[in-house]
Every structure is written in structure tokens, then in C-alpha cells.
Target: Aldehyde ferredoxin oxidoreductase
Amino acid sequence: PTRHAGRGGLGAVMGSKGLKAIVIDITGAEGPEYADKEAFKKITRRFNQALQKHPVTGQGLPRYGTNILMKIIDDAGALPTRYFQMGQFEEVEAVSGEKQYEIIKARGGKIGHPCHKGCVIRCSRIYPDKNGQYLTKGPEYETIWANGPNLGINDLDAIAQIDRLSDDYGVDNIEVGNAIGIAMKAGVISFGDAQGAIDLYHQIAKGTPLGRIIGSGAITTAQIFGIARVAAVKGQSLPAYDPRAVKGIGVTYATSPMGADHTAGYTIATNILGLGGKIAPLTKEGQVALSKKMQVITAALDCTGLCLFCALMMADEPKSWDDLIEMINARYGWQWTTHDFFVLGERVLKIEREFNLKAGFTPIDDRLPEFFYEEPLPPHNSVFDIPDEEMQSVFEL
Model:
């Protein structure tokens, strides 16, 4: 299965330099050096055992993958539907993780596929077509949302085909899904038109006039079709959680350096899943501090090379933080403490913030699109109401 560097334009930078791929040949490589290899292996085993025992990383993700979230987020009224018009999809069962599991098992696909040889979470899967032939990996929750409920589409096979096309054509299917949502709002095709959405992906690859518009992303698509209501921050489209129903993630979208990035400070863990405590998703109180803390943790965790999903277990297991620091020290021979880990995260965020300021971003870019503040989202009929001044405290590191 394919693996991706994710969103944010890295592929566009590679393309602009004529760089198609990076291939690493490890033949004859000696591997990394360890200050204390035996200690590192012992701590790693303990850390992995904690991952395997946790209900999310040891049960939910291996069985249902990231799409375990579909019904959870829908139940919370936070699933953006038909391009952020409502928070629940009436046909959510048809695109749920449970339904995806049934299809994969019935067709002889693979559940619990590891992204690399040492992965113990194994949240990926192999999705076959109706003839049992490989179609795509996953698809992941974000892909299914962006090209499913977001477009009023309830066909997992069509979404899996879109996922395969997005891999083959090299596009971000969250961004393209949002661009197609805008095209649907503009009447180019209708909500629910799966074949029409597939055709638009093909048009991107063919370079037709319409394909070039959609392939340029949501903001360009909206500008050309005269749509003022665009769900994007710093040029990047929002992912699969409506910030009116989960206000912590709204703070992350607005203030994270890359723009609307759920992985930069995943408050869903606490707001919805109740990991590491609980802050109600609809309240204003505590959301800025929660997002800030999670952004710092994520920035540091990314530096270690650990999977972000490790943080889901770590939120519930305080001892795992000690294990993480011991792993770092056994690997490099350092004398780090948890304080050093948080300082690392703060330093990363400061550097990224400084880059944005030098690139011309201002506090105006650190907020959500206006309609999130003005349009109540069914079923809770809530709006995003955290003041800009309060969100600016995220940058006080």
C-alpha cells in the first residue's frame, strides 16, 4: 500500500523541482547507533505493550482503522456534511468503519495491515474491489469523509476508487474533496453524484479547464465560481471535524502553522474520545489551553519519529511519558526530562510561527472563515465563538 507525506504542499514543492520520488536503498546499511541498545529494546517492548493494551490503539484502530471515527463524529454532530451545511449524515452507516470492515472481510481483503514491519497498531487495511482484486489501501477516515458525507456520497466502492485515483494522480483528496464540494454548491454537479466526482478527478489528470480549476484547490475553485463561503485557513481546506461542534479543534485549525490541520493539535482525543480527561466539545472554556498543549506535544512527538497515534495511549498512561523520555535517552545517551521534551515542541512552533510571519501572514490569518461564527450548525445549532484575542495566546510560548 502507498504511504504519504501528507498535506501541506510538500508534493507540490517536489514537483516544482522535478523530483518524482525519493528511494532509499538500505542494502548493507549498518542501522542507527544506540547509546544503550538493550535498555532501548526493553523500554520499547514496554511501550509497545501499553499500545496493545489500550482500547484505541490496541483494539479500535487495528480492527476498524481510522474510519472507526465516522459514527463517533456523526453522533457528536460534528461530521461536516454537504460541504459544512450540517453536522450529521443521514446515511452514515453506509460509509462507517463497521461497514468498511464487513466489505473488506467479505472480499478477502486485509484488516490490521502495518505501515511498516515494526508497527504494533496496524491501523491500515487492504480494500479489494468486488472481484477481490486490490483497489486501494484504507481508505482512511479523512478520505472517506471528504469524498463521502462532505459530498453527499454514500458509496464506499466509489470512495475507494477516488482514493486510488488520488494516489495515482498525486493529489490531496481532502483538498480536492473540498473543491468538489464547492463545485457542487455552485451547481457544476449535484451532491451525491459519485460518478460525477470520479469524473472530476479524471479531469484533473487530463488538465481540462474544469480539471485545472478543481486541481487548484478549494479557494481557487470558489473564486472562479463566485462562492464566498470557503472552509479554509491559511489556504488549506478544513478536514473532517466541524469546529462549531468541536471548538478545541477550531482553535487548532485557526492557529496551527500549516493552516487547517487536525493533526497539529488533535483535541478530538479529549473533546470527543475523553482521553486524558474530558473538555466538553461545545463549551468555550479550556479549548485554547487544550489546543496549545496538544500542539506543543505534537510538534515534539513529530521530532521523535513516533506515530501520532501513540499520543492517544499516552494521554491515558502517565507512565508512558517516562518511557518515551527513557527511550530518547537510551538512543542518544542524553539526560533528558519531560521538561526538555516540551521545550522542544515549543521551539518547533516558534520557528514555524516566525516563518509564517516572515512570509507575510498576520493575525487575520489566525482565525476561521466568517461563516463558522455566523451560521449555526445542526443538530446543536452552535457557532464557533472563541474570541480572536484569546486564540492569540496560543503563540505565547
